[in-house]
What does this fold into?
Amino acid sequence: MTKLCEIHSFSKPLIANLNKLGIGNLQALLLHLPLRYIDETHLTAVRDLRLGESAQVEGEIVHAELTYKPRKALIARLEDASGQFTLRFLHFYHSQIAALKVGNKLRVYGEVRSGFFGYEMVHPTCKAVGASSFVAETLTPVYPTVAGLTQGALRKAIGIALKHADLSETLPAYIYQTFQFPSFSDSLQALHHPAPQADRQALENKTTAEWQRLAFDELLAQQLSMRKHYARRRSVDAPQFSPSKNLVSALLKSLPFALTQAQQKVALEIEHDLTNAHPMQRLLQGDVGSGKTIVACMAALQSIESGWQVAFMAPTEILAEQHYQKMLLWLTPLNIQIAWLTGSQSKKDRELAMHSIANGSAQLIVGTHALFQEAVQFKQLGLAMIDEQHRFGVQQRLALRQKGQPEPHQLMMTATPIPRTLSMSYYADLDVSVINELPPGRTPIVTKLVSDVRRDEILQRVRESCAEGHQAYWVCPLIEDSETLQLVTANDTYALMQEAFPELQVGLIHGRMKAAEKQAVMAAFSRGDLQLLVATTVIEVGVDVPNASLMVIEHAERMGLSQLHQLRGRVGRGAAKSTCILLYQNKLSETARARLKVIYESNDGFAIAQADLNLRGPGEFLGVRQSGVPMLKIADLNRDLALLQTAKTLADQLLHDYPQAVEQHLARWMADVSQLVKV
Ligand code: ADP
Ligand code: MG
It folds into this structure.
């Protein structure tokens, strides 16, 4: 892999700027592809300019002035043998005023618009016409760049890279035959320097054969890296647990409900995985309230019955505490020893817990991130279960996996369903189970969109609901990047609510509170001692209070769709008909409107996740997972679905038949990602 500093003509500042773009070597520089193109391959006569089209014109400045009405502008007229038109600049430097002096010869490039004096170009790029002026032979690429790195410098650097870098094929030719793709080398040449007659629209939509070829290569690289890890798992040892004979059936007998069909199905899938001698890595998806916890608990019992410990981890203290309580309730009658471990425990409690984990007397350990810590030593960890997996980074999950010898099985849970294209690509290293039905008897949640100006009516609504013996949540707006402001808002809202409802017991819960305080508040709300709970989004995940049947979410337009869906899932857990009111500020942006419409119209987590993906793109959707998984830069999962499918079918075969070629391909495509996926 050629480093940038090995190219003598690359200066230090240039390399620093390239690094800022995430480019660390020649391969990555080659794959820094244009955003769009401009056509400087020919000159257009002023007479032939067409409205809405971009053109390059050469001529002489015949008039130039600074005007101040209606606003400050630099206006010039450019003339060639066929006519004149206007150049207009609203922001400009002194150097530009000098360049636009009457008599100067210029070549300008820009889009033709109609102006007050006929055709004009606003902020065209201008070049002085010198003795050696020539017309470009290919379309001119425009690259994503950073301040301080000009297009010219970037073009030059990429030109050098094209000469120096190894452009040979990495994979056997047969994989490209189905699509009859051009070679890697031809594709790069054609994308960095397209021929003048190339279809610009297709180029910019990335649908030319050359773009598609590179998108395919990128998708292949992603699949290969994911499947490589999948295959690695098949070669690693894990403890084998035969299906439970006693504990699971005893648990099921003690429950006041029967499992749904979907729960039974996924429970069997997991049971089977645990009988394997290789570590399971299964993602259990199921909408909020679909009953993932009991399924996880069954897996835990299978492991415990075989004599192995289980770690059950949740992203927040509140949720971990709730799981702990539930496990106590379900498993104490079965004589299972459960330990509890969080960061906020007293030193003494913590040491006791650590001790029982190390000597094996704790069979199930429930906790938060604290479970990852190095000091936590398990006697024999057989299964790690992670709730709301999207809240954890790849590194954290990796750390938990390393806590067992041989490698423990992993069960990850998520209530944010993963759309199909994402699970085919970014999650190709995992096995997936889906709980696709809710337990019977749930009344659907009614969602209402209400403008903030009708706040008083909403307050009245809360009052009535609580008077009927129900409970309510009032969720404070999300304030991005400022926990302090978040806190201020939460405190203010709390004060307002206490004032508005002197007859109610109002509670407050937010992320800055100590764990014990949070637990106390949650417990009070759970018992019904509090009727109204003012909360920040800390209650987003998992919290279960069946008597709460009304939720008001302020500034709903600021939240992501999946987040809103999660929040809304906190109500509708009991028999009472539940309502979720989304308050929004009057001026809604187009996107915000589209988002709220989705959440208003749908109760289906999958549909919401798909819409979220479409609106926000995979980067935000994947959140923390992307820290370990390289993002696709060229391929688009919707546009290139056929390529993805083919890449997926080819990957395992390539790994098996051409392991060396695969390594070369990964080196080329994953060059700028320091560590490949390690999930
Ligand atoms: P989630 O999938 O969101 O984690 P939970 O596991 O918390 O959902 O389950 C939600 C609620 O439904 C819990 O109170 C749980 O005990 C209950 N539950 C789970 N499975 C069933 C079932 N088959 N029938 C009725 N209630 C169930
Ligand atoms: Mg849950």
